[in-house]
Fold each of these.
Amino acid sequence: MNIFNKVIVLLILICIICVSLISIVNVFMEYFKWSDLALKVFNPENEVNAFIAALALLAVSIFIMLLEFYRRGTRVANISSSKTGNAMVTLETVAMQIKNAVIKIDGLEEIKVKIVPKATGIIINMNAKLNEDLEIPEKMQEIINEAAGIVSDKLGIKVIKTNLTVIGLVAGRKEKEVRKKGEEEEAVEAVREEAEDVSEIEDDDR
């Protein structure tokens, strides 16, 4: 079930709950009679044409049913280097190839890739987190060149434009590894000191 249908079902459930609550309260308070309310709604003297109302309800029901069975086709990008046929690659595959290639660049901590297909090629949009100790402009250009190169050279897809946005600067992996190693050494040292203290207490007891 897609999002639109979920919203419709949710609204219907909310209406049912509200009608149920009103019905429960009306049993004790007797604000109105359901028969009188039905006559007001379906009274032929009202301006609303019953045929038009039924037709509109039918159209809405068919539209919702079509949305339920409708499935979006796989989004693909055409390979421009193919001369004898129509060769395509899914956008998910292109994004994964880019991510696998650029994640190996030193200083790149995290990368998210989105591909926008166009008639003559694709647009690459990337969001990245970089090491805060890097030369940011140079590293961004390196990432852009690598992403565009892997698409055009390896996949044979024309790149119209490559956009890169830095969404955060974080401590580098090496710094994290050094910090983690230091914490592990401190933990080992603490355990060793605790073991020595226990040994000394046992010797004193003897």
Amino acid sequence: MVMRRRAGNSLGVMVGVGLLISLTGCDYWPPALQAQVEQMRSETQTLTMEKTQLQNQVNDLSKAKLDLQAQIDDLGRMNREKTGMINSLQTQLDTLRARTVKAMAPKAPVKSTPKSPAKPVVKPQAKKKATMKKM
């Protein structure tokens, strides 16, 4: 029975020490493991900074894209307006050319109607002299 008590006591002590170690954790880190952990922390910080920079670049590029899209929309609208103006001016030019061609074309001779010989054309010459004397 004494043997059982000693075995039970020693087993209890070992379980207690095991629990104490597992609850408190081990503070010893081998130097190689510490170096790896520090390297990973450094890489994590570097990658976080790069990610932030890339995110800022993406935001800037998105803003630039929106600005350029607005400019494209404005230029497209202006292009449609200018195309309408050009078409209107082209129509006016065609109309003016047609009028010019009509105006410059020789007129067809008009058929003359026979004049009646009964009415001679008299020019009032006396009136002209009278108006000249007044001057």
Amino acid sequence: MALCDFLISADIAGFDCENPMVKGAEPMGLLINRKDIDTLTISGFNITAMTLKCGGKVATKVYQAGKQPFSGTQQEMAEGTYTNTITNTVQFVVMEHSSDTAPDLFSLANGEFVAIIPDKMGNYQVYGAEAGLHCSAQVRELYNDDTLAGWLVTMTEENASYGNLFTTKAIFDSLQVATSAC
């Protein structure tokens, strides 16, 4: 068994004057049924390959209008006895409530997912690739001005060892195209 060295490798300045952080997410992300993923290759903190199984599988678009899309999406370190992990949380609103959306809400409540959310800086952050995103809450409030009586869905991935996984725009774009029958 090898011993891991946890060493920093660059200056931690706290602020990059030439490339300041920009908070927030883009309004369109992807939600993928974890069982539909055929290959997933992680190199360091990057997902370098992700393909879906054959037979028309495709990532589902999740669109969030407004000035704060995916508000509530966050990452938090969870202290463990022997190692620390990351808890990833992704939030979005289903802005429809009907018998047509009921099956999808049921699937969201009981399934396992991976989400890719682009941020305002051009990064494509991946949540759920390690331990899967599971629904931890669905709340519908009839008089909520923010959700317009839609469902606020909270998905959580616990015990992610890396937690900060990223992918490319090319992989993001490729997941939106249905795979051919094999």
